[in-house]
Please model this.
Amino acid sequence: MFIRSYLRASTDNQDAERSKQDLIKFCESHSQRIAGFYVENISGTKADRPELDRLISDSQQGDILLIEKMDRLTRLPFEVWETLKARIKSSGIQIVVLDQPTTHTTLKGSDEATSAIQQALTNFMLDLGAAMARDDYETRMKRTKQGIEKAKAQGKYKGRPVSEETTRKCQQAQKLIDSGETVSAAVKAVGVSRAQYYKWIK
Model:
């Protein structure tokens, strides 16, 4: 049995490895070690996640996928979560969640009868956690949209501020444009979109 830990954060500005030490200590408390960490900065609403795919590909029957919370693994719509869960299950991988004690028994082993009951409970808790993670995401998106609409109505909404990196690239694009390049060629050369460039101008 190998334990592989999946660490995810939604944006590059967040630290995906924030929980790494907590996961290491958790395994040590169960006399286990983590065989590998799979880290990526990508939204939990995205089904296409290269590092998660690599973890599943590297794993074998009986291995464990260790996560801090269910929202690190999924904020997917339930139907998409069902597909991902089926893929994990078909690979023989067990999911252990740091903040869900019902999943921890996988690390200890148990008799066949207890295992069947425990697995049913674990599956229920995983589905519940996945549903709550998605609901939390949808609630936050709804509140954000409501806040933006309210700010627009009051004339206060200015949109998300342009990052320092994007500002730097737009400045480079502007120099190219000033020297005779088209907007399309300039933004492509520095790696920003036309929308980002025009937003920076405003």
